[in-house]
Amino acid sequence: MEPKTPTSRRVLVAKPRGYCAGVDRAVVAVEKALEQYGAPIYVRKQIVHNTHVVKTLEARGAIFVEETEEVPEGEIVVFSAHGVSPAVHEEARNRQLRTIDATCPLVTKVHNEAKRFAGQDYDILLIGHEGHEEVEGTAGEAPEHIQLVDGLDSVDRIQVKDPSRLVWLSQTTLSVDETVETVNRLKERFPTLLDPPSDDICYATQNRQVAVKEIAAESQLVIVVGSENSSNSKRLVEVAKDYGADASYLVDYAADIRDEWLEGVDTVGVTSGASVPEELVEEVLVRLAKHGFDDVREVQPVDERVRFALPHELRKDLRAS
Length: 321
Ligand code: SF4
Hints:
Blueprint: E1 9-14, H1 21-37, E2 41-44, H2 51-59, E3 62-65, E4 76-79, H3 86-94, E5 98-101, H4 105-119, E6 123-127, H5 133-139, E7 146-149, E8 166-170, H6 176-189, H7 203-216, E9 221-225, H8 231-242, E10 247-251, E11 267-272, H9 278-290, E12 293-299, H10 312-320
Parallel strand pairs: 1-11, 1-12, 2-3, 2-4, 4-5, 6-7, 6-8, 9-10, 9-11
The chain binds iron/sulfur cluster (SF4).
């Protein structure tokens, strides 16, 4: 039997959603650099993990490269919001590149914790996803002291020199609940494991997860706008499913929504990852309205007002001009 189309269809839109302060700062840094110095501006890795943002900046003259060695000597390179290891800074210096470091200050905070604990000869257990740029950057601060913990299974494989000098840190964009589970498992093995001085999972990741939990409880379907390589966006899909949604999908664009996802659904939740511009969410709402989802309500369990200043190298030149 065909599923019935409900007569009243509503959309619950999570707030906060979309751009966080670190992403906003990184994207504006590339835009301002293009205005100030002219194209091309080189950017190491995707400035933020969003396909649309990268394409838009490319169209304005940004050139995205994987490594600094691809940047011609003497040119300007912007480091992405996810941060880089000291080895990358060194390589840029050797190639006489002018750098603009758009590393999010909250990622820099984790780098500083890693340096401090490594300086005190601690072993550091870095909870995060193998291969993620942020993890590579943080681990590069003290490779001989840092071990990656990627998933519960990896806990049993950890070897440490001295369990009384052991601390855990984490990637900024993890699932809060999963990280608590991993830390609990680590503490079963290492009861003297030290907690970081403050949360490493950043405010934006936490707030978006709090908000998606609220809408998931009342939605059959949650659509998360975000790219496949965006860690915080993928976590939102998992959290939505854990907190009551029957289904949740990650979409880059409104056009990715399949009609069959909406069959028999009367409430759709919508949110977006921290690297997603609001225009993409608006396009999703337009698409949903065409399917009769025209009762749109915003659900805001947390207020968010964080802003970061632009990278200082850029601020200096902008002031001078
Ligand atoms: S998600 Fe968090 S750590 Fe990452 S750029 Fe945004 S504020 Fe910074």
